């Protein structure tokens, strides 16, 4: 934990009206510097935020992106939530475990690749999905996934299917801490699946109405209790009624 | 009658460098912001109310009404928090939106913050989407440089700062009060409501929390008018929404349409169910919304229509599964997800999701006597009844949805696992690459 890092931790805390709000990005910065959440990093965050180390540890152990063991240069996450699993994620994960000779949340002997099965990463239209250092690797097969990890271990350049050439896990963590790396302009606007509806609309001449078109307003309720009754949550309904009573 | 598809939010997703300010402004971007800054804040709230916009993060609460709950006589600062923690299984609309057109979101944040009189706004993005974080960070930086953010925006006297905040991996932080805990640097565990965040939210101050798509819809409402927005959709579910099709359809992807479109129509647009197969079950709005079957293909996908069919519109995350998919495997995997993501705060969810996983795991392996089958299904339903409505937040409720709905529609398939002594399905048959052979 050198002076530069400490200064950057202070800088993160200063972004917020109340400094404790900086804790999540601060822990991302600790990971970018130390390759994991370390006791020293926890102490530094605690000191800056005037918390106990136990309070910071309590937060660090709650969130799955914070790692208590060293992570490799490339964190490879295979989505095995239902849709990706069914579409082939389970098989991809099994093949990668075998190929890399590691279990879940383990790192290869050369320290290059940490393999983990992950939950839904909001790219279901590109299933099966793999994330490398939290960059999208869309529409994978067992063969393509193996190719990716082989190339990464051989030091070859690998690009995200919707982003830049892959950086290291530590570099990625620095961006998540709020220090941009200047790569925002890399990659496409969106991938092919994101545009299927748009293309179809273009082919059929479909569009949103002109701004002069007008429909009837005032059909949606303006009554709070009625609104929660109509909303898709019985929980908010009971809570709102509790508040009203 | 609107066209079948109505690209508004997705309209520029195919445009080169659509994420840049110059490209966004070339197609009229930030025009609605300039119009809004000349309006009275209450008039913006009225316009959003009149439009009929209902929350796009799943619950469908009227957005303008939520804004009107902010007590303006409260001397504390007001805050806008954008929920960009998109994590509900099957949901994949906000991530491409922020990647392709982050300025639509930023413009929406400015207008919405001005309306509720907030001078600080936060965009809480799940941490697992690096390139999306980059694009939103860059958009906010560009907006500051152009004078759209900061002090005295375009001479209006209005100040706004926006902080882009990356989360760290927790599905529960999509729940609005857990998100606030995360944003305050704490473990993401939900808070008791009431008080609602509108009264005591971030730092116990009045706070509006809205989904990305809700906020991104605001510029178009202010730009084109509430009546324009209300010309799309159905009586009580106004406007357009992004419908995300995934799974066993020929062309999965994003289809932006007026609310009320049917899944039959959407599947037709998506080129049908993948060749040689037929639909078995689907989720209308993510895994927390009860499963539906082919008999529900013609229900209007709006809040009322899906509700009447016994499910929820949710986030319009339409996960489509064909006959090669084992429903027990699908449900077990979702249940494992809820178990993993349960925050541990309340007992019914923390313990209940573990019991559900254990029972379902044994069922999937066929590890009960055939004669015990009906009893085991009763046990599962009983476990669900002890979670639904008894847990602290909606995560526990959601965990029961796939189980109870799948038992309702596919009871025989559960029992078949016991008769077969395990899963009767070939998992390879359901994969996207099954045609390439087992050892692809």
CATH topology of the largest domain in chain A: Glutaredoxin
The CATH architecture classification of the largest domain in chain A is 3-Layer(aba) Sandwich
**Share of residues in helices of chain B:** 40-55%
Largest sheet of chain A: 5 strands, mixed
Please provide the ordered H/E string of secondary-structure elements of chain B. HHHHEHHEHEHEHHEEHEHEHHHH
Strand content of chain A: 5-15%
DSSP helix count of chain A?
A: 10
CATH class of the largest domain in chain A: Alpha Beta
For the secondary structure, the number of strands of chain B is 8
Work out the oligomeric state of the chains in this entry. heterodimer
Helical/strand content category of chain B: alpha/beta
Shape of chain B: globular
Radius of gyration of chain A: 23 Å
**Number of discrete domains of chain A:** 3
Instruction: Label the overall shape of chain A.
Output: globular
Task: State the total count of DSSP E strands of chain A.
Answer: 5
Strand content of chain B: 5-15%
Distance between the termini of chain A: 53 Å
Structural class from helices and strands of chain A?
A: alpha+beta
Largest interface summary: A-B, 112 and 142 residues
How would you sum up this structure, described in words?
- The complex is a heterodimer of chains A (245) and B (440).
- Chain A has 245 residues and is α+β, with helices and mostly antiparallel strands.
- Helix content of chain A is 44%, strand content 8%.
- Chain A folds into three domains: 3-62, Arc Repressor Mutant, subunit A; 74-169 and 180-192, Glutaredoxin (3-Layer(aba) Sandwich), CATH 3.40.30.10; 212-245.
- A five-stranded mixed β-sheet of chain A has the order 2-3-1-4-5.
- Chain A is globular.
- The model of chain A has no long low-confidence stretch (mean pLDDT 95).
- Chain B is α/β, with parallel strands linked by helices.
- Chain B has 16 helices and eight strands.
- Chain B is globular.
- The chains are: A alpha+beta (245), B alpha/beta (440).
């Amino acid at each position: 934990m050198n002076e530069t890092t400490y200064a950057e931790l202070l800088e993160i805390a200063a972004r917020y009206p109340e400094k404790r709000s900086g804790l999540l990005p601060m822990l991302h910065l600790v990971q970018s510097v130390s390759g994991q959440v370390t006791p020293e990093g926890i102490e530094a965050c605690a000191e800056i935020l005037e918390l106990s180390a136990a309070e910071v540890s309590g937060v660090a152990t709650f969130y799955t992106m914070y790692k208590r063991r060293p992570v490799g240069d490339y964190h490879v996450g295979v989505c095995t939530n239902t849709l990706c699993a069914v579409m082939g994620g389970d098989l991809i994960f099994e093949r990668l475990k075998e190929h890399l000779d590691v279990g879940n949340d383990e790192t290869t002997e050369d320290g290059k690749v940490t393999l983990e099965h992950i939950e839904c990463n909001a790219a279901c239209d590109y299933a099966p999905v793999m994330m490398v250092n939290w960059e999208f690797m869309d529409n994978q097969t067992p063969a393509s996934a193996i190719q990716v990890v082989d190339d990464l271990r051989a030091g070859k350049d690998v690009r995200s299917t919707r982003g830049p050439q892959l950086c290291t896990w530590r570099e990625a963590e620095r961006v998540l801490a709020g220090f941009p790396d200047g790569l925002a302009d890399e990659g496409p606007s969106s991938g092919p699946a994101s545009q299927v509806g748009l293309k179809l609309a273009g082919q059929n001449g479909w569009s949103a109405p002109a701004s002069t078109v007008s429909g009837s307003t005032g059909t949606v309720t303006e009554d709070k209790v009625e609104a929660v009754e109509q909303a898709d949550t019985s929980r908010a309904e009971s809570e709102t009624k509790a508040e009203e009573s | 009658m609107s066209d079948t598809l109505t690209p508004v939010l997705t309209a520029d997703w195919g445009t080169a460098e659509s994420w840049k300010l110059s490209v966004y402004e070339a197609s009229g971007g930030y025009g609605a912001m300039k119009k809004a800054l000349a309006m009275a804040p209450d008039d913006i709230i009225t316009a959003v109310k009149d439009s009929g916009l209902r929350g796009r993060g799943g619950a469908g609460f009227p957005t303008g009404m939520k804004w009107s709950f902010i007590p303006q006589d409260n001397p504390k600062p007001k805050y806008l928090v954008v929920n960009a923690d998109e994590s509900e299984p099957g949901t994949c609309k906000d991530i491409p939106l922020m990647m392709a057109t982050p300025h639509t979101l930023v413009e929406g944040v400015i207008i919405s913050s001005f309306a509720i009189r907030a001078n600080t706004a936060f965009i809480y993005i799940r941490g697992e989407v690096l390139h999306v974080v980059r694009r939103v960070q860059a958009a906010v930086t560009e907006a500051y440089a152009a004078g759209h953010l900061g002090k005295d925006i375009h001479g209006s006297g209005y100040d706004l700062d926006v902080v882009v905040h990356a989360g760290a991996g927790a599905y529960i932080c999509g729940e609005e009060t857990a998100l606030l805990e995360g944003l305050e640097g704490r473990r993401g565990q939900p808070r008791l409501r009431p008080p609602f965040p509108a009264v005591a939210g971030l730092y116990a101050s009045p706070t509006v929390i809205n989904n990305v798509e809700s906020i991104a819809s605001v510029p178009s409402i202010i730009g084109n008018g509430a009546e324009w927005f209300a010309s799309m959709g159905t009586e009580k579910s106004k406007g357009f929404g992004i419908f995300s099709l995934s799974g066993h359809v020929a062309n999965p992807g994003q289809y932006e349409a007026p609310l009320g479109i049917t899944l039959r129509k959407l599947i037709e647009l998506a080129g049908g169910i993948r060749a040689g197969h037929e639909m078995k079950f689907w989720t209308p709005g993510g895994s927390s919304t009860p499963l539906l079957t082919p008999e529900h293909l013609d229900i209007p996908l709006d809040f009322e229509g899906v509700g009447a069919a016994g499910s929820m519109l949710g986030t319009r995350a339409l996960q489509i599964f064909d006959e090669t998919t084992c429903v027990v495997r699908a449900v077990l995997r979702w249940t494992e997800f809820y178990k993993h993501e349960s925050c541990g705060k309340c007992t019914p969810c923390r313990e209940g999701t573990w019991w559900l996983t254990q029972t379902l795991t044994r069922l999937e392996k066929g590890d009960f006597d055939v004669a015990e089958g009906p009893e085991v299904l009763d046990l599962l339903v009983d476990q669900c009844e002890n979670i639904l409505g008894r847990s602290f937040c909606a995560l526990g409720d959601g965990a029961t949805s796939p189980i109870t709905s799948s038992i309702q529609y596919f009871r025989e398939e559960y029992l078949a696992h016991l008769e077969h002594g395990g899963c009767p399905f070939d998992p390879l048959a359901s994969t996207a690459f099954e045609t390439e052979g087992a050892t692809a």
